[in-house]
Structure prediction request, 501 residues.
Amino acid sequence: MELSFIIIDDTELDHFIAKRVITNRHKTAHVKSFMDATLALEHIIEERGDASTKVTLVFLDIYMPIMNGFQFIEEFEKFHPDIQDKYYIVALTSSREVSDINRIKSYRSFKTWLTKPITAEALSVLLNKICKEFNIQLPE
Amino acid sequence: MADKIKILYIDDEMDNLTGFKASFRLDYQVFTSINIPGAIEHLVNHPDIKVIFCDQRMPLKTGVEFFEEIRTTFPLPMRILLTGYTDIEAVIDSINRGNIFRFVKKPWDEAEIISAIEEANKFYLANSMLSIKNDELQKAYSELDKFAYSVSHDIRGPLSGILGAINVAREMYDIAEMKEMLFLMEKSLKKLDTYILSMHDYYSLQRGELQISDVDFNSLTDEFKHIYTAFANTSNINFKININQHEPFRNDVAPLKLILNNLLSNAFKYQNKHNSVKEVELIIDVRKGVATIQVKDTGIGILGNHIGEIFNLFYRASSQESGSGFGLYNVKSALLKLNGQIEVNSILNKGTTFKVTLPTK
Prediction:
């Protein structure tokens, strides 16, 4: 699969919704779920060799205990650029806090941000953009 | 003795120091020094000195220079200059620059000194009251900021989840999947509900007056016994209660219940799922007017670097369960109100013990 997905969020319902919105669009999508951002980081380190995936779209919740989205992104930006290039990270937030949005914009690794809940329309716009950028053909 | 206003007098003439002390030591706690280093030593040892008298003409430094120098290092005491000379220019200049509260002519008149001390003391108290209020205000502002941030996430979070679920449900035809989603929706709503209830606890702890009554720990814990025993049975947790109270204990029941409920609910919530033996133990000992409450669990424990922060508002050290970030903060506020103390001992993956000590009222 040229495009796969990772969801990092501490709320089960939000995982369920994101997964469902993704698989509605594209039935056979590979979606990995992490309730704890530290485990997601470990996973990315281990997975680095997966050559068949061109890019992984990561939905990263900002507001989480232990390691929040910002702490995650700071760790992520320490990774080798070759690894970083394979992840397209989108910040997810339930608030429209200006301070959060500004902070999100200050990290180069956040490609964009979405206000929860994820909708089919928002995902569709995002996927079109990614497919163009990485030259990926998505199966319907 | 402890209530006497502390004053410090600096003069290079011993006779003046002795005379001053003799006149005022009955009404005030008087410290004297013949030179500046000695004065600084007094200020360091007694940070609650409220009024400083200093002679203007001294061999190494003038009183005005001394006051200017200590203004930043010891800003709190009120500074009063004593002078027998007419170098009034320097004095006026110093008063205008705010270095001196008053000046008193030498030789002094006792009544004048007393009135100067009383005035200075009033000023001192007003100033320190202002700085206390300022600190409280600062704290209230920072909590308000945290609140605004948390409300936008913790309240909007579950709501946006529910909205998302409704959206998704439009294209969902499988009943089993629908039921799974309803279960998760319920979980999110319960979390929101807990958040709002804890917010109410938070508010009532900040505002309410204490309502002291007799506390019987046996009947107080009956309620919890009932709720948690049911929970313990379904989750296979061994719940032990041990209460030792052979003397009366008086306190406010409402915050006491809040403390117990929060500690117990954490002990049950943060159990280690992989442990074969799961246990929660509540031990209450009342002895010599002090109640010691211990809540022990065999849970996941708390990482050392989180322990210092678990009592902070909205701080959460685990993603295992849905916490609001209110619980232990409310416990701490309740203990502050009841003059109690709390200690935590935790070993990662082994368990946590919270120990609360409370005096009777």
